[in-house]
Amino acid sequence: MNLSFINNNIFFLEDVVLTKENLFTTRKILIIWKHSEALNNDLLAFLKKILAAIHCDPEKDVWFFSVENDHRYSVSQIKNQLPSENAILFGFTPEQFGVRAQIKKYSLTTIGGVGYLFCDQLSDIEQHTPLKAALWEALKTIVR
Question: Could you tell me if residue 4 is inside a domain?
Answer without folding.
Answer: no
